[in-house]
Amino acid sequence: MSRAALLVLADGRFPAGGHAHSGGAEAAVKAGRITSAASLEDFCRGRLHTAGLVAGALAAAAALGVEPRELDAAADARTPSPALRGAARRLGRQLMRAARASWPSAELDALAGEFPKGAHQPVVLGVAARAAGLGPADAAYCAAYESVSGPATATVRLLSLDPFDATGVLARLAPELDRVADAAVEAARRVLDEGVDALPAASGPVLEIGAEWHAAWPVRLFAS
Amino acid sequence: MTATGVRAQARIVARADGRGGTALPVLDGEGPLALRRTRAGGDEARVMVVGAMSGPLGGDRFSLDTRVEEGARLHVGSAAATIALPGQAKGEAHYDVRLDVADGGELRWLPEQLISAGGSDLYVTTRAELAAGARLVLREEQVLGRVGEEPGRLTSRLTVRVAGRTVLDQQLSCGPGAPGGWDGPAVLAGHRSVGQLVVVRPEFAEQPVAARMLGECAALVPLAGPAVLVSAVAPDALALRRLLDDALTRLA
Amino acid sequence: MHLDHTHHGPAAVSADAHRPDGTRRALRIGLGGPVGSGKTATVAALCRALRDELSLAVVTNDIYTREDAEFLLREAVLPPERITAVETGACPHTAIRDDISANLEAVEDLEDEVGPLDLILVESGGDNLTATFSKGLVDAQIFVIDVAGGDDIPRKGGPGVTTADLLVVNKTDLAPYVGSDLARMAADAKAQRAELPVVFQSLRAEPGVTDVAAWVRGRLTAWAA
């Protein structure tokens, strides 16, 4: 295993489509719920402990070799918003392309064959981590970090927020991100014995409702 | 500490009576989960949960199992809101609800609100298992704190399975001690009432309902299966109920 | 979808000239250039000029998601299923250069859903003079500038002006009104681009998009050869 592969996979410039998604930040900005670095931090903290935890556990379980089809169904059940399910599958498909080019693997090929229109992004992320020789903790860290880095980057563009402030938010969340990644891996290991019901199902109602609101706008900057 | 919490169990079985109505061969409740059959509406049996005590308190463990058999129709409501309170016993309270609906059966599960009072710590688990041809209307409303009060800690998980496949699995954690950001712009955004309405109908598999907003704080969404979810946040219980009632009317 | 079983082969990662089923994919031509230079109008004119002889489709990359796609729909230059909008998260150049994954999905979906296609035009969101398309996304690119943007743009150069396979100087009808010197623009472009072609066009008068359409036909002939 190459530790540096984690840097490649987690790099914000990894060409897997994330730049066009705000992780709900665009809706929160328009609703007046994110107006500053402080409210961005509050948003990111909530997203980390809900969508971030679930994504981390899905990715870790996929990295452990849990059947991707079951994980994908579990992701559907944990994503009531069809707009978010669609975004997760589009991002999964885009990540699949980048991952297959980066770490060719029979498991990635099989997953792409099974989900030609894309599996949920965290599931693809976990299988990609496996293909890159990474472990469940790496996958969980990637997914959990993406759950907050996406909104932070988007808010810099949407509010012209000082980029140093946004980066400070991410740095302050790091200890919580450690705990979320640990919890995600622990849940993923339980999945090996107990099945996918052991995955966390933490939800943010405002994220889900906001995603549907956002999807209905005629004009928007971000895809989700 | 010697105090242990209350254990209370209740069971309901609804069975088609063969004459177009629904019988209740099992209607067992106790203490805080006393059950009462009320006047039936048409072919539907009606049951009211009448809490004889307030609760659940810390350390209490309630469970309520409901089974609707083939072709039976059951409506379950509650006489008043359930209030989670801090108790003498240490530790969290648990309230587990298990709902099973067989083919051709219909369950309308419409209890009053769950109020999380300051200092309480309650885990609610609601698990619905439906056969492929079963129908369900399920409403769940949580109110964080009584008027002017900080909420207690509430962890609520709702799982709905249809024909063995999980179509919804959602957990909400809020109140002091919940994971960070629960009151922030991604989770509750300062709202004090949050609710879900799940409607499962076999015909949704063929004719899915389109997603739509119901105002700015509620959305009606098709789930990945023959089910629809209305998810809503509101400033108070009354506003929340209005949103969910309105949604139910639209789906009728 | 009949394609569910055709994706098992090696990944069509990006610039492969063939689709997973072995058939040759459509030629992809990118159109970039600054805001307001007439990219969308040129795409619309190309569609009108070519739609009777070719099977074609368009991908737009709006800054505000669907504006350009909706212009094309309103103008009815192609049936709606042949026009797809890609959302770019406020960074149109990222979507055509640094992370082309969403655009690749869009062109592949168009081929799957309305194909076979001969040509896909990929229009970038209006950006700056440095925005160019990745070779992983398009086979050739057209950079569209206009005379009203300043007649010093060809002299200033930049990746779009210097390296695009075709430079289009649009809105020549406005030159007298904005004081642009077309001869000077042509000389500067020649200096920057050496042998690469330049077309001066006005879509408000004959021959309109004819020269650009002829260039596209030439690329198609080379692609199909």
From TrEMBL, chain A:
Protein name according to UniProt: Urease accessory protein UreF
Pfam families, alphabetized: UreF
Organism: Streptomyces diastatochromogenes
Superkingdom of this protein's organism: Bacteria
UniProt family annotation: Belongs to the UreF family.
Stored HAMAP family: UreF (MF_01385)
Keyword Chaperone: yes
GO molecular function: nickel cation binding
InterPro entries (UniProt xref): UreF, UreF_sf
Main location (coarse class): cytoplasm
Keywords of this entry: Chaperone, Cytoplasm, Nickel insertion
Keyword Isomerase part of the UniProt annotation: no
UniProtKB/TrEMBL annotation, chain B:
Keyword Chaperone assigned: yes
Keywords of this entry: Chaperone, Cytoplasm, Nickel insertion
A GO MF term: nickel cation binding
Record's signal peptide: none
Entry GO CC: cytoplasm
Pfam families: UreD (PF01774)
Origin: domain of life: Bacteria
Main location: cytoplasm
Cell compartment(s), UniProt: Cytoplasm
UniProt keyword Cytoplasm present: yes
Family: Belongs to the UreD family.
Stated role: Required for maturation of urease via the functional incorporation of the urease nickel metallocenter.
Oligomeric form and interacting partners: UreD, UreF and UreG form a complex that acts as a GTP-hydrolysis-dependent molecular chaperone, activating the urease apoprotein by helping to assemble the nickel containing metallocenter of UreC. The UreE protein probably delivers the nickel.
Protein name: Urease accessory protein UreD
Automatic annotation (TrEMBL), chain C:
Subunit structure: Homodimer. UreD, UreF and UreG form a complex that acts as a GTP-hydrolysis-dependent molecular chaperone, activating the urease apoprotein by helping to assemble the nickel containing metallocenter of UreC. The UreE protein probably delivers the nickel.
Superkingdom to which the source organism belongs: Bacteria
Domain CobW/HypB/UreG nucleotide-binding per the UniProt entry, residue ranges: 29-199
Protein name listed in UniProt: Urease accessory protein UreG
Gene: ureG
Nucleotide-binding among keywords: yes
Coiled-coil blocks: none
UniProt-listed NCBIfam families: ureG (TIGR00101)
Role summary: Facilitates the functional incorporation of the urease nickel metallocenter. This process requires GTP hydrolysis, probably effectuated by UreG.
GO molecular function, one term: GTP binding
GO cellular component, one term: cytoplasm
GO biological process: urea catabolic process
Family: Belongs to the SIMIBI class G3E GTPase family. UreG subfamily.
Binding site for GTP: G33, P34, V35, G36, S37, G38, K39, T40
HAMAP family, alphabetized: UreG
Compartment(s) of residence: Cytoplasm
